[in-house]
Design brief:
- The protein has helices spanning about 1-15, 105-155, 175-180, 200-215, 265-285, 305-310, 325, 330-345, 390-410, 440-445, 460-465; strands at about 15-20, 25-30, 45-50, 55-60, 65-70, 75-80, 95-100, 160-165, 170-175, 220-230, 235-245, 250-260, 290-295, 300, 350-355, 365-375, 380-390, 430, 435-440.
- It is elongated and about 230 Å long.
- A hairpin with a 5-residue loop joins strand 8 (about 160-165) and strand 9 (about 170-175).
- Helices cover about 35% and strands about 25% of the residues.
- The protein folds into 4 domains: about 1-100, Immunoglobulins (Immunoglobulin-like); about 160-265, PAS domain (Beta-Lactamase), CATH 3.30.450; about 285-395, 2-Layer Sandwich (Beta-Lactamase), CATH 3.30.450; about 415-470, no CATH class.
- Residues about 1-15 have low confidence and may be disordered.
- The chain is α+β, with helices and mostly antiparallel strands and about 475 residues long.
- The termini are far apart.
Length: about 475
């Protein structure tokens, strides 16, 4: 027994490291194996560095130590002792203990797990990215489909003919207006066909030349005015728009175009042109002055008679000017005041007689009518006026007035007898207002400025004085 203890002491004193597998459940050591001093009064101090937080103490009655379930790792077991006098060894002894961890706690296993986890994470990342890309792709496709539907809805409901052609000038898209313009019933009837299948040779050739110009030069056609004849022979005026379509590389792959029907617009323009010609003919040949003014009484249109009255070389000397600039301060201020009042109240000026002194001292008489011009909202924007010279009329009026005065003066010298005058059938005496019978001469002289001179007519003389020949 003593030899075995000595062998164990030598073993522990000569070995500095022990390696145990993790499956070692507990360690039980006799402290005498570490200390060669064996006395009954000895005390021992021990610590398992890496596991114990502080030193543990025991005496000779308990000279062993037990550790159970130490986790894998490296430890240092330290032991010291004191004699029965309490003197501790200065050096003590120690031994390294290595408990190998299980394979799942080894570095290579950690590395393998890290690789596997990384691979799984990478696979999950790739899967998530593919799922996200797929979702994004589906979202983009849905958005593209929505945009395509919106665009198609817009194209199909536009009032203009809209189409798309390929490099061979064949229709690949045609909205309902374009389909109807070609005399077809559905888009399927026109897809893949050129204009030669639907229009006259002349119209199709013109369209083809335009298409080729855009495809070859890349220069768009914007608002080119033209016309064509439909199947019923009706002439249709249109504005054409043709723009090259390019792919992602910038190469031209087709044409997108539109035609705007301006037939009604051209008809209205022609009618307005005719009406303008009629109005110009009327304005330039009417003997009266016709003019248009804005709210500031500035002229913006006049007829030929007005230009002649102003002795202007052309309309450019008149447009934008007021009556003050053209006719002078005295006459112009009055007309501008009248026009301002008319545009404020909206009451037209009808048959206004005006006079203006000429340079030669004569008076120029005019008869003027002015009517306010209104816009679509009913607001007054200016006026139109017509002025006629009435010098002859005023001269006749003056002569008439003078004649009336002369007649009035002449009648002032004549007293008028009126009413029923009683006269004697025999003696020709007249009964006055008081009932007296007086000679007719006296009656007339009292009631007028007439005077009588007495004489005898031949018949009475022959009767009264038959013996006298008064004819001698």
């Amino acid at each position: 027994m003593q030899k075995g203890a000595q062998f164990l002491q030598n073993l522990f004193l000569n070995v500095t490291k022990f390696i145990f597998p993790i499956k070692t459940m507990f360690f039980h050591w006799n402290l005498q194996a570490f200390i060669t001093l064996h006395q009954r009064g000895n005390r021992y101090a021990y610590m398992m560095e890496g596991f114990d937080k502080e030193w543990n103490y025991t005496d000779a009655n308990r000279r062993f130590v037990t550790y159970t379930n130490l986790p894998g790792g490296t430890y240092t077991f330290r032991v010291n002792a004191s004699n029965n006098q309490g003197k501790w060894s200065e050096k003590g002894t120690s031994i390294r203990i290595i408990i190998t961890p299980p394979f799942w706690k080894t570095m290579w296993f950690y590395g393998l797990v890290l690789i596997v986890v990384g691979a799984i994470a990478f696979w999950i990342y790739q899967w998530l990215m593919q799922a996200r890309n797929l979702a994004a792709q589906r979202q983009m496709e849905a958005a593209l489909t929505k945009e395509r539907n919106l665009l198609r809805t817009l194209i199909d409901n536009l009032p203009d003919a809209v189409f798309v052609k390929d490099l061979e000038c064949r229709k690949i898209i045609a909205n309902p207006v374009d389909v109807r313009s070609m005399g077809a019933q559905s888009e399927a009837e026109v897809i893949g066909k050129t204009d030669h299948a639907f229009y006259s040779a002349e119209t199709a050739a013109t369209s083809f030349a335009e298409d080729q110009s855009v495809l070859q030069s890349g220069i768009p056609i914007l608002g080119r005015e033209g016309y064509y004849f439909d199947k019923q022979g009706n002439k249709l005026n249109v504005l054409s728009f043709k723009i090259p379509v390019r792919n992602e590389d910038g190469a031209i792959v087709g044409i997108v175009g539109a035609t705007h029907d301006i037939t009604e617009q051209k008809r209205i323009e022609e009618k307005l042109k005719q009406e303008k010609s009629l109005m110009d003919a009327m304005m330039d040949n009417i003997p009266d002055s016709i003019y248009f003014k804005d709210r500031q009484s500035r002229l913006f249109r006049v007829n030929r008679k007005e230009i002649q009255d102003l002795h202007a070389k052309g309309i450019y000397e008149i447009i934008g000017k007021t009556d003050i600039e053209l006719w002078g301060e005295e006459f112009g201020s009055k007309t501008i005041a009248d026009e301002k009042r008319m545009m404020e109240t909206g009451e037209p000026i009808i048959g206004l007689i005006e006079s203006r002194k000429l340079e030669n001292g004569e008076t120029n008489w005019t008869l003027t009518t002015k009517i306010p011009l209104r816009n679509d909202s009913g607001q007054i924007t200016g006026l139109v006026g017509i002025t006629r010279e009435i010098n002859d009329l005023m001269k006749a009026k003056t002569e008439r007035d003078n004649l009336i005065v002369e007649l009035q003066d002449a009648l002032a010298d004549v007293k008028l007898l009126s009413g029923l005058v009683p006269i004697c059938a025999n003696c020709k005496k007249i009964r006055d207002d008081q009932g007296y019978w007086t000679q007719i001469e006296s009656y007339i002289q009292d009631r007028s400025d007439a005077k009588f001179s007495h004489s005898i007519c031949p018949d009475c003389a022959a009767k009264i004085y038959p013996n006298y020949n008064l004819k001698k």
